[in-house]
């Protein structure tokens, strides 16, 4: 698939590539980002509105609870009020006594004057001597059938109802209803404290969204739109049963518009019935501003994209025109015309390519002239090389003659009783023959150590007891392949520099072993050693790029061969301390021995 895409792109014209790249890299990502930003702004506006509405609902809950605390406190006080107990249970013999009692009892009126949250206070009593004065009302059969009255008689807990009486003086307000028992008289009555509708509506008037408060029967007791008060939640067509759904955030279609509905619940203190607080807002209204901003942004982005497309088209036309011209000139060169001069203008990459094209054509002309001259010169050199080769062959010494001469010297020394000299000559001849025979590029550890031992025996003949050597070889490493002449230069360096400036005997030790799939080779001596600065300079010479002078050439050659064959980590490592000797070691990976 990747090959197919690459082939398709390579076969596409430059102008089409630029346009395709613009659409793929600029236009599509910008449109995608614009869509994401629009969606993000819309969601942010919606989430912000929901968060604001939730906060508003919490505020309304707090304000409603504070408002309901006033009638609650009043009812708690009247529960144990002696004057109310006497007023409700006294038997009045006549109307005069009753009117005087009504005139003297002004507590209800004082509460309504003192608290603006309270509209009216009524007490429903079974005392037959009372008459209805809009504060004390005798209970009749019609009142006994009312739900709120029957609920209040079940206990002394506080109940809240929106009472829609059809009597001469209807309440039509949210009211606190609770039973007031009189144990000493073995009687009871029902207290009703009606709240001011103006205060309830005023509490919701400043809400930005439509907000409702409904009692447990689903009757709206307060609303941002006062005309909704007294209606049921079903009459408002919210799209689902709010009271059954419970507390939460819901989405529904109201009057054909997508809306969010936030539902919360409030249970006032000391009450057995509570309220449902509902806030409704249209999704379209909330995201209208975000949509407007997104539309303006989309139009601006579209205008920029169109302008950019026009600019890309013009630029692509200019580029392809210059490239076509350069391609035409290249075709003429391919046909053999080397006198073409490109005239493509500009200081950009295409202009630079045109100048390099002219330079290339000029260079080709010069090279063609040089090739002819070089060919003539090479012919003359070839004849001279043949002559030199014949002279060199004539001046070469036959190695067999040299080996035969060394063997004659050895036999003569042996016949004269000079066994040490004979052995040394034999070792020297063996060492020279081995050096001449190496040409395959590889040898074994055992063969390399034969040369090392021959060299050490010859040096021991020279220096006598001043040189002591020891060669330790692990048996499993005997037949492993290593580069030729890789150990002998290290031994030679140890002998020369170990015996230098030291009169006492010097021990040269060669250790070869296998550790962790690597061949470890170490050459150490207990000679005079080196100072730290001298060791640093030595390492710089063998690892540097410039060819060193003096005795470091052998170590440098070994180091370079190791690093070229196995990598930097397989080069020479040297440790030395003054008066303590020198150690040179390296390792070869066993997996590579056959490739040496």
UniProtKB/TrEMBL annotation:
CDD domains linked to this entry: HAMP (cd06225)
EC number: 2.7.13.3
Pfam families linked: HAMP, HATPase_c, His_kinase
Record has Membrane as a keyword: yes
Transmembrane segments: 20-41, 295-319
This protein's UniProt keywords: Cell membrane, Kinase, Membrane, Phosphoprotein, Transferase, Transmembrane, Transmembrane helix
Compartments, as annotated in UniProt: Cell membrane
Main localization category: membrane
Residue ranges occupied by any HAMP domain in the UniProt entry: 317-369
UniProt membrane topology term: Multi-pass membrane protein
Family matches, as PANTHER family: SENSOR HISTIDINE KINASE YPDA
Protein name: Two-component system sensor histidine kinase YesM
Source organism: Paenibacillus peoriae
